[in-house]
Amino acid sequence: MLSSGLVIADDLTGATDTGHEFAARGLRTLVSASTAPSDTPSSDTDVRVVDTDSRYADPSSAAAAVHDVVGTDDHSFVYKKVDSTLRGNLVGETDAVLDATAADLALVAPASPRNGRTTVEGYHLVDGVPVAETAAGNDPDKPVETSHLPTRYSASSYSVSRLPVNRVATGPAAVADALRDRARTGRGIVVADASHERHLEALADGAARSGLNVVYVGSAGLARYVETPPPRGAGPASVPTRDRTVLCVVGSTNPTTLDQLDGLPAEPVVSLDLDAAVEDPAGASAEAAAACSSRLADRGVAVLVSAPDEDAPRRALDAGRRLGIDDQTVRARVAETLGSTVERLWVGGPPAPESVFVTGGAVAADVFESLDAAGVVLSGTAVEEGIPLGRLSGGVADGTPVVTKAGAFGTPGAIRKCIARLGGDDAYE
């Protein structure tokens, strides 16, 4: 009997938003870290989503992490989730999936037209702009240097071909024929154009019809259409709406998230003291936890923010330079302060927050680690496109409702909507 389907993501919010596409179809879906305890419950899991936290790892470490997660199990399907703005170790991780499986081909389609991500003539675009010319091209750790997917994949150890949009638009049968033609020349990578949801559907359907062993490489968009076995048991458990206190942890510096913060009232917001976080993370977290606890008691909502404006990262780095601390350590100390603040709120004495919202993949991973959570069981419902709802699994906050959001996702009112859904507070609608 085949084991559950496997999704491998390189960050936590990407893992949850992709996992949601399977949970929404009635498949019980568990998101966990590759380092999660081996006794994480999975006997009734249809889809296992693993976050390798490898987006900013060195390429060899990232590839090894992916290879280890695939292991030797005979998965019902394998899906390598990649960033919809092409950040991370796309090539090495795609090669690792092919290395670790008996797949004939890797079908690469990172487009997500619903979220403004399209691939046309091999060029990947965000809202019509070549991705290398967007914020992803200025990523401080791994900037995206080319928008042309075949060029990006030219570093692969496998041969690479492109499936053009005119062939994809013809439909699943044409896609299946194209994949079979490609497979006759040996194992390799097919990079596909997609500028509309129906193109992603044709790609997934064509792969299923081809009779080939195909591993899928894409953002959450392609996952929506991948053929899966039927659920093996009860579907995802719901998260009923009711009054709850809500802790929001906002660690993303993406302009989309900053715009969403602007739509919140000032009263529940707790801005991290960046100078203190860089110099004394323990002291800064104690101060922030006390402020959040007060907001939760008085208003039922606390919004812990590490970067309240676009200039905040620069201020944190400047604080580090004054103290002789390198940039990487500065970022680590800010993350440590956020995680420690969350931990204090749960273990420092009752009452703990009754739900949590977190935005930013790395921040979400830090928060879950601070709570000793093994992962998230997704509910199959979402607050908005790409913003799923679930419950924490394991640790001191086991069963706590949680919403995760990638920094670049959501409408201007997304954070307000998340607070309203988690806390049952009509004032945030």
TrEMBL record:
The keyword Kinase applies. Keywords: ATP-binding, Carbohydrate metabolism, Kinase, Nucleotide-binding, Transferase. One of its GO terms (molecular function) is kinase activity. InterPro entries: 4-carb_acid_sugar_kinase_N (IPR010737), 4-carb_acid_sugar_kinase_N_sf (IPR037051), NBD_C (IPR031475), NBD_C_sf (IPR042213). The keyword Membrane does not apply. This is YgbK domain-containing protein. Residues 6-225 form the Four-carbon acid sugar kinase N-terminal domain. It comes from Haloferax sulfurifontis ATCC BAA-897. Belongs to the four-carbon acid sugar kinase family. Residues 247-414 form the Four-carbon acid sugar kinase nucleotide binding domain. It comes from the Archaea.
